[in-house]
Amino acid sequence: MALTDAQKVDVRRWAGYPVSGDASVVVYSDPVYFHAGPRDGLNALTLDGRLDHLTDSEESVLVDTYLTPIAALESAILTVGDNLDTNKAAVWERNTTEQSDRERLFKSVCRRMCAFLGVPPGPGLGSGNTISMVRS
Fold first, then answer.
1. Does residue 113 lie in a domain region?
2. I need a surface site. Which of 13, 60, 74, 99 has the fewest CB within 10 A?
3. Is residue 130 predicted with pLDDT exceeding 90?
4. pLDDT digits (tens, 9 = 90+) for 45-102
5. pLDDT exceeds 70 at position 25
6. H or E element in which residue 93 lies
7. Residue 103 belongs to some domain of the structure
8. 67 assigned to some structural domain
9. Alpha helices in 1-136 (DSSP H)
């Protein structure tokens, strides 16, 4: 088994990293370069390098537990707008926080995928901390 290029692109974007383009990746210049730590027996690794060296079992978990569900979560976020024109119809009432609820769940699963892969969430995914400002 080997991840397809499309699956690798999905991992990169769902981990919060920008596209890598068509230039060849040079070690230490790839923006998705991270320190794995001495406990792992590795000094550093690129995300692409990590994805290229998954075991069959790890790849299966990545695809079944993360990639397939994350694709469905992303699709659900993109279709939230279908009901924005209706607040209430008979007994059905729109959940006004549906989009933010779905985005929070999506990002949570993406962060879990990052943890599984041993990579920090990228700038597009953020830290997961939220800041609220309240006017008093």
1. yes
2. 60
3. no
4. 678 888 988 999 999 999 999 999 999 999 999 988 776 666 677 777 777 888 899 9
5. no
6. strand 92-93
7. yes
8. yes
9. 5-14, 47-52, 56-61, 68-78, 98-117
Backbone angles phi, psi at 46, to 5 degrees: -85, 155
As a three-state string, the secondary structure of 50-89 is: HHHCCCHHHHHHHHHHHHHHHHHHHHHHHCHHHHCCCCEE
The number of folded domains in the chain is 1
Give first-to-last CA distance, the chain, whole Å. 57
Distances (CA, A) of 14 to 3, 42, 53, 55, 118: 15, 24, 19, 21, 14
pLDDT at 43: 39
